[in-house]
Design brief:
Elements (H helix, E strand, L loop, with lengths): L13 H21 L10 H11 L7 E6 L7 E6 L1 H25 L2 H20 L1 H19 L5 H19 L4 H18 L1 H7 L4 H6 L7 H23 L7 H20 L7
Antiparallel strand pairs: 1-2
């Protein structure tokens, strides 16, 4: 349920892209140092965005070091280390573990079972640091699972638990990030539900859009326009919340993600040319 929050690289200057990569590599390194090499597999651009966003609300200069890369042996990358990176690493581990438990419950997946075993000790360590956040994620995923079991057909209702997860994770970094986090979570859930329709029709898996509109929904222009309208409304809410923040740094990178990266994902999903610009 992640993978939609990213930069639009073509519009970033080289120095801005290098800085973005320093946060990304810093998060990867933090996952390995604080937990284990296995949890580095859960590295995501979404959690990198949270680290950059949270760090941009203060004027402290980042601590940068050159570290070896686990993927490219012999290469050393610039890595940023700070409390925002560390929090994103903690949150990434907690969220991944709860999601694996949810997947095991829903799909009885061997992959999820193996993931739970691999993540367990790291999760216990991260959860001890952030018990309230861990409980919040577990409770909201439980609520989401209940909606799925009841075959709830209302996307706004079903999207709320995941939106609350993101809202409260963002709020842990700074009070002012709650509303932005909520709408980011809502956007991710709606994107995910829409893009999964074809696969869910084949597998018979739950999807709120299928529950409400049936299998014909993919061929309906009015349905597609309704989803586009809902996403556009959410994108506007994200932009509005973002514009109210007082940023001390990284504005060019965050502007790129909010105004171009998210829009690119939207265009890629709905445009006949696959989102090419």
């Amino acid at each position: 349920m992640f993978g939609f929050i990213n930069i639009y690289k073509d519009e970033l200057k080289i120095k801005e892209y290098d800085l973005f990569r320093s946060y990304y590599c810093g998060l990867c390194k933090a996952l390995g140092k604080r937990y284990s090499q296995v949890v580095r597999l859960g590295l995501s651009y979404d959690m990198t965005f949270l680290a950059i966003l949270a760090d941009s609300l203060n004027d402290k200069a980042p601590k940068v070091s050159k570290e070896g890369c686990i993927k490219k042996r012999g290469k050393r990358n610039f890595c940023i280390e700070n409390p925002s990176i560390n929090f994103s690493a903690d949150a990434s581990v907690i969220l991944a573990y709860h999601k694996l438990k949810d997947d095991l419950k829903d799909n009885h997946s061997i992959k999820a079972f193996a993931g739970i075993i691999a993540y367990y000790s790291s999760f216990k360590k991260a959860s001890k640091k952030h018990p309230d956040m861990s409980l919040m994620i577990a409770n909201n995923l439980k609520k989401l699972s209940e909606y799925e079991e009841d075959l709830c057909p209302e996307i706004d209702i079903v999207a709320d638990p995941f939106a609350q997860i993101c809202a409260n994770m963002f709020k842990c970094c700074h009070e002012s990030l709650y509303q932005l986090g909520y709408n980011v979570g809502r956007l991710i859930y709606i994107f995910d539900a829409y893009k999964d329709i074809t696969d869910d029709l084949k597998s018979g898996s739950y999807n709120p859009y299928i529950c409400k509109f049936g299998k014909e929904c993919m061929n309906s222009d009015s349905f597609k326009k309704g989803v586009m309208g809902s996403l556009n409304m959410t994108l506007t809410a994200i932009s509005d919340s973002y514009s109210e923040l007082k940023l001390y740094k990284n504005k060019e990178i965050l502007d790129n993600i909010i105004y171009l990266g998210l829009r690119y994902e939207y265009d890629k999903t709905f445009s006949s040319n696959g989102g090419k610009k």
